[in-house]
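User: Last request for today: this protein with LLP, please.
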Amino acid sequence: MNTRDTLKINGAGHLEIGGMDCVALREKFGTPLYVFDEDYIRKMMRVYRDTIAREYGDGLVLYASKAFSCTAIYAIAAEEGIGVDVVSGGELYTAMRAGFPANKICMHGNNKLPSEIAYALECGVGLIAVDGASEADLIEEEAAQRGTVQDVLLRINPGVEAHTHAYIQTAKPDSKFGFSVAEGAAEEMVKRILAKKHLRLKGFHCHIGSQIFERKSFCLAARKCVGFMSEIRQKYGLEADILNLGGGFGIWYSEGDAQAAPETYADYLRALISSLKEECAAHGLKLPRLMIEPGRSIVGEAGITLYTVGEIKEIPGVRKYVAIDGGMFDNPRYCLYQAKYTALLANRAAEPPCERVALAGKCCESGDLIGTDFNLPKAERGDLVAVFSTGAYNYSMASNYNRNLIPPAVLVKDGGAEYIVKPQSFEDLVRNDVVPDRLRRK
Ligand code: LLP
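Assistant: Here's the final one, the structure of the complex with LLP:
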């Protein structure tokens, strides 16, 4: 466990987050339950925001809201004065519902729907990151109809293979994202955008992948982008105003990962900033406005998930399964990426672990596990399990598989807890179901 002021074991031997005893959280809200530590989220937003302001100057942090999107998180981002990245009409709608300033929104997506583009322009989003040849035409058309000029970035693929799971690498040569610099596709797109009257090419975007610890990959990407910017200036006289270097900073999940305090993330930025400054100086380029898009590192370690232990099954010589009241419907990351997590028994948090168990979900599927290697005290029915680092890409990837209810989320701060996502009900599950007349039971 990566302990901190707001995540620790208290005097009662219980896990405590944001000043709330997890046993009390269960009493009040039940399980499964996503719990988010507001102080940690704000701290991370500030570390990025302040490091850019102090060490670079002109820049904007865009919280990558795909990591965890609900109305309250946009409200927090707005209060902290940062921007957000959205990737769908739904995320944009949620941000707008929170009253988020549209000029601080960057719209992403590798296949933005015409309706999403229209909605983005209607909202007046600050930037759209163009990630498709025909998308530029669609935005042009929509902007022309509205008699406006839309600021855009071009998503380029600088060809940096970052060290992470293949599914979350995004800038390798075989990728659905971005226009390849090496193959000339990026330059072709620059020409195409420059020819459009209703698009203003403000600069470039790249994102090399997610859950990356190697600083050199980020630095290399920054250098390659600057190299491309310099080439574009030489050939087309366009000096980019903005360079958006995406997100991807890794967080602690389990033994193998570095345990970092929020301040440590300033180091990633410092390394990035110094590569960027050096490379711009080498090419005689003005420093662009720097944007970054961290998602996981802002909310990931802020979140834990609480579950109640149910069935326990031991297969002698094989494995012990401890089943919980959640599973792949609230956290599909083991199924998708063989992701590793750490857990403890939150009601017996001070007890030393004595056995290695698999945490099994309740879905009708063998692969429905949170993981296979959890060191826990001997768990019993009714114990309270806390899984750490579940704030990112858990709720946002949750589903109603097996018609399980997506758990609610609470925000904890200074010993208080409030819903930010209310519990679903069975009624919610059938809300959009329709039974054609001929199938109605008389
Ligand atoms: N910007 C862009 C354009 C992105 O595609 C992403 C993540 C981010 C920023 C934020 O990256 P972060 O700081 O969160 O690493 N579902 C996967 C992760 C997919 C990441 C997709 N893009 C997982 O659970 O690991």
